[in-house]
Specification:
about 525 residues; mainly alpha; Serine Threonine Protein Phosphatase 5, Tetratricopeptide repeat; two-stranded antiparallel ribbon; disordered N terminus
Length: about 525
């Protein structure tokens, strides 16, 4: 796992300088060691390893739950300063919110670092006799840049594209326009196509992207664009490869780092509990109940937790509710501490759980995904309770459901055998629903399946968003995001009043320093 930590040598080469804009994060222009570094594949691979963790941290830390889950109605965030006063719970997000800035900063750091590495590798390749060993680094950098811009386009819609941050920063002209989302997505597809054509068919090391990672991500982009023919084509290629399958233990996949980089994972962020701040998965620290991690850690805040609405959305027979959530009666004998010497028991009746803390979530539940426990079972944890469990960015289950939805396309329903086979493979993983298959697919059936399958993975908001404003508004305004109080419910309904609420505002600090960001978006491709 150490290959995912940036080396001290790389820090000296890729030292991110403070620039006027977050999306101009770049290395020093003066690079006296380029001639003596990147002389073999090992050094190139060490550099691209950085793209799988720390640069994503400010997004994966809290923002991916706030955006993907709180906006969608799957989760509620605390109302404290760490979560911008709960603004993502009810669509009162402002351009001055910290989460908006950290999302912008993190995703442009991914894109910018990928671009810097790409340009550096290209420059190095032009200066050596045989630079074939650099091709993999170029492809990996373009894959990661494409993914970063895909997230930017879905979160902020029309955004700047910076192909050479070093040259741009050197020019002194920081007035960068926003480009049309359609052009940003075209740019994304060009990067992913290059990665698909130049990455190996199988990861060259555990957790690394492959050509099928790129194909799967292309399928997801095409689905977002409603280009169903190409989404089906790319998903079909991944399915036909025979290299991926569903991991049989759904719960373990999200509660144990031993399941990292399993047969279902096409692309995942890689974390190291002992790597220090920015290198470990922090979800265990802030989503777990405080009683679970204390007294060994001063964390476990229950600061983001399931809504009543998402809990009620599971079908009665759907085992993913128990695989994804801690609710009354949930137990783990291997999670022990002084509060739970005989094993952890999630108890909201007042007999155990509430005797240790006066806090109790409004939905009487905690999310289970990415919660690995107090470390009593050998799971490595950082000093604040963060873990080594990977963050899944693309799973084979997604590819299968993309395929099924692509077959349905704009239709009202389908009974296509191949679409049903792909759908039911996900639907009945590990004998879920007692292996009773679904016999017809509709848009609502697929959307419900995606909500259950990917709950708390930061994706459901994008599924709602791509339905368009009218349907998104109807979905959101039916959700009761309230909480239990005594024997009743304090109801809370969010409202979408403008199509602009489907996207986050650009951070105010960025628009102040670059007023062009407030102007209408322009075409990138002439």
């Amino acid at each position: 796992m150490k290959k995912y930590k940036i080396s001290f040598i790389l820090i000296s080469i890729i030292c991110l300088a403070s620039c006027k804009e977050d999306f101009l994060d770049r290395p020093s222009v003066n690079n006296p060691t380029l001639d003596t570094y990147y002389v073999n594949a090992q050094e190139v691979n060490a550099a691209t390893g950085y793209l799988y963790n720390s640069v994503w941290y400010d997004y994966s830390d809290k923002a991916f739950h706030s955006i993907g889950e709180a906006l969608s109605g799957n989760m509620l965030t605390e109302t404290g300063v760490n979560y911008d006063g709960g603004s993502f719970n009810n669509f009162t997000v402002l351009s001055t919110d910290g989460m908006v800035s950290s999302t912008w900063r993190s995703l442009y750091k991914v894109a910018g670092t990928s671009t810097v590495l790409l340009k550096t590798f290209e420059q190095k390749k032009a200066s050596v006799a045989d630079g074939a060993y650099l091709d993999l680094g170029i492809a990996e950098s373009r894959f990661m840049r494409g993914v970063a811009y895909f997230y930017l386009a879905r979160i902020f819609k029309d955004v700047p594209i910076v192909e050479d941050p070093v040259a741009l920063a050197g020019s002194g002209d920081y007035n960068i326009p926003r480009y049309l989302q359609a052009d940003v997505l075209r740019f994304v597809l060009e990067d992913l196509q290059y990665a698909k054509d130049n990455l190996p068919a199988a990861p060259y090391a555990p957790g690394r992207a492959s050509s099928y990672s790129a194909a799967g991500m292309m399928a997801k982009v095409y689905l977002y664009m409603k280009d169903y023919a190409n989404a089906k084509k790319e998903a079909s290629e991944v399915m036909a490869s025979g290299k991926y399958d569903l991991y049989p233990d759904y719960e373990k996949m999200f509660t144990s780092s031993a399941a990292n980089n399993n047969v279902e994972s096409l692309f995942a962020l890689q974390w190291i509990a002992g790597g220090g701040y920015g290198y470990a998965n922090a979800v265990n620290a802030y989503a777990a109940p405080s009683t679970l991690l204390k007294p060994g850690f001063g964390t476990g805040y229950s600061s983001v937790y399931p809504t009543i609405d998402v809990l009620n959305s599971y079908a009665p027979q759907d085992k993913r509710r128990q695989w994804s959530n801690m609710e009354q009666g949930f137990t783990r004998k291997d999670w022990t501490n002084s509060n739970f010497p005989d094993g952890f028991k999630y108890d909201t009746t007042g007999t155990q759980y509430e005797t240790v803390t006066t806090l109790r979530n409004g939905s009487r539940a905690n999310s289970l995904k990415y919660v690995v426990g107090p470390g009593s079972n050998g799971e490595p944890l950082s000093p604040n309770g963060s873990s080594s469990i990977c963050t899944y960015m693309l799973r084979y289950a997604d590819v299968l459901l993309i395929y099924a939805e692509s077959v349905l396309a704009e239709g009202a329903s389908t009974s296509d055998a191949s679409a049903l086979a792909a759908f039911n493979k996900v639907h009945n993983r590990n004998h879920n629903f007692n292996d009773v298959p679904v016999t017809a697919l509709t848009p609502d059936v697929i959307l419900k399946e995606r909500r259950a399958e990917f709950a708390y993975e930061g994706d459901y908001w994008f599924d709602i968003q791509r339905q368009g404003f009218t349907k998104a508004k109807a979905i959101i305004e039916k959700q009761d995001r309230g909480s239990y109080s005594g024997t009743g419910v304090n109801h809370l309904y969010a409202h979408l009043t403008s199509e602009s609420q489907l996207f986050l505002p650009i951070p105010q600090a960025e628009t102040v320093s670059d007023p062009q960001l407030l102007q209408e978006a322009v075409p990138y491709y002439k």
